[in-house]
Design brief:
heterodimer, A: mainly alpha, 9 helices, globular, B: alpha+beta, 17 strands, flat, disordered N terminus
Amino acid sequence: MPEDAEANRERDLIQQARSNPDAFRELYDRYCKRVYGYVAARIPAQADADDVAADIFLSVVKHLHRLNNHHQQSFATWVFTIARNAIANYYRRAGWVESQLSLEDDLLADDQQLVEVALAARETAAELRSLVDSLPRRRREIIILRYFSGLRNHEIAEVLQIDEHTVASNLSRGLQQLYQQYTMLQSNSVKDRSSL
Amino acid sequence: MNPLTPDHEFEETTMNTSAAQPSIPGIDPQALERFVETLRAAAPQPSTEFQERLALRLSAKVAKRRGSLLKPLFRTPLRTAAAVVLTIVVASGAVLAVNSILRQMIGYDAGLNAVFNSDEGTQLNLSQTIGDYTLTLEWAYADSNRVTVAYTIGGWDKLPTQFPGFQHYQHDLELTEGGVLVPMTFGSTDDGQVVTSSVFTFNRSGMAPPDDGLLDLRFTANLSGWNVISTAEYDPRISNTETTPLDVSFAIDFTLPLEGSVRILDTAQSATDQNITVTLRRVMVTASQTRVVVCLVPPDPQRQWAMIPYLTTDGTEVPGGGGMDFITGVGEAAGEICNVFAYNAAMYDYQGEWSLEIRELVGFGSGGGNDQQRIAGSWRFDFVVP
C-alpha cells in the first residue's frame, strides 16, 4: 500500500478504534509485535515484559480519545512514548537500574568482552540481542526502536526527545558496531568448528 | 559521505524488510542488508497466546467504551439519534452473525439482549466434531453475576434409529483454574431434529474477578439418546424414558473477558409484618443481571421458606425476574434463611430509587408440592444502589 494511503488508513483506524473493536483489533495487530519487541528488548524477564506490554495497550485504549488533540504527533510516536514511560515506571517501581544505565553514551564497551558475552548465547537471535544489550544505553534504545520496532528516524527523535541527527549518527555507529561484532562472532564460530 | 557524522541520514524505511539500507564504508552493502534482516528477525516476539489474550481483553474494553458512548444517544435530537443508530447497526454486523435461533433466544433475556446489542459479549465460533456430531460454541458473555454460553449441536439426523429422541444430558462449565460454575437457566430448541440451539447460563456471583480480567473456561457436553420404556401400567411417579450415552463427549477450552463492573448495596434494612421480620441484605447489579438477597427468620423452622418478590424502579416492575435460589453464608448468624432473586435485566446504568416488596412467604414442608404454608403480607424496602 502506498505510504499516503497507508497513513490515511491508519488515521481512519484510529478514529474508529475508539468504539469499534474490529478497528481496534486491526490497529493492535499492526503494533503488537512492534511494541512488544521494544518492551521485551528492554525488560528481559518475559512475564514482566508481558505485563508491561499489556499495560501499554490498556493505556492506549483508555486514552485513545485524546489522540485527536495531538495532530502533530503520529500514532506510532504516541504509542512508543507511552511504552517508554511504562518501561521507565517499571524500573522505577522495582527500584532497579538497567544494566547499561551507567554507561556514557559515547562509551564503547570492549569488543572482545561483548563477543564473549554473545558467545554464551546459542541462537543467532539471542546472540544478536545480547550484542544489542551491550551497546551504550542511548544507542541501544535507538537501535531497538529502529530495527525491532520499525520506527522512522524522526519518530525515534520525537519519542526520545532528541534531534534527528543524533538519531542518525547513533544508528550508523550502532549498526557498524553490531555488524563488526557479529561478523567477528561468526568467524570465531567457524574457526571453532574447523579446529574440532 | 562519512557515515559517522551527524549529517549522515539513513534512508527512511518502514518495517518492510526489502527496504534499502544505507551504506557504511568498509562494509559490503549486500552483506549489511543481510545483517539488518537478521537483526530485525532477532526482535523479541510475543507468544501467540499472549497476543490473543491481550486482544480479547482490549476488545472487551473497546466494546465497553462503545456502550458508554451510546448512552448520550437518548439526549440527542431524534434525527441525530436515528443516524447514529444506523451506524451502530452497520458496525455491529459481525455480532449479528450468531445464528437466528440463538439470537432470538438471547433476545428473550432482557439483560443478555442488552449486552449482546452493545457488543459486550464475545463471538467465539469454536467447533468440535466427534463422529457425526458437531458442537459449535457461537457466543459467550461473562460478568460478575453470571456466565452465559450460546451454542449449537448438529448431527442429530445421524442418531441411531433405536433412539426416538435425544438429549445432551450433561453440560458443565468450569474454570480451568478450578471450580465448576453452578447452572442457573437453560433454554434449548431444535430445527427439526438436526441442530439444537441452546443458551445456558451459569452463576458466578461471589467469585473473585481474575487478575487479568479473563476467565479461562472449559465447556463440556455429553450426548445421549433416549428410549421409551414400555410399562404395564402408567405410573406418573416413574419415568418412562431411558437414556443411553452416545459416547460423544465434547470439551472446548476458551477464554472470555469478564465485564467486571458491578454496583453493590450491602445493607440490613428490615421490615416487619404478620410478626415476621424480613431483611434485605444485599443488591448486586451488573450489566446483565441484578441479584437481590433477602432473609427472614423462618416462622416454622421445619419448613423451607421462599419469598414472592416484586421489584420496581420508578413504579415499573424490573423485567427478567422469576429466578430464585436459596443462599447460605449470609444470615445464619441471625438465625435467618436467605433467598437470592435474579433479574435478567440491564439495570447497571439506572441511578434512581429501587423498591422491593415481598408479598408472600411460602413454607414448603416434607409432604410434597401441596404441603405448603402461605403467609400473605407486605414487607417493603426502598433503597438506592451506590
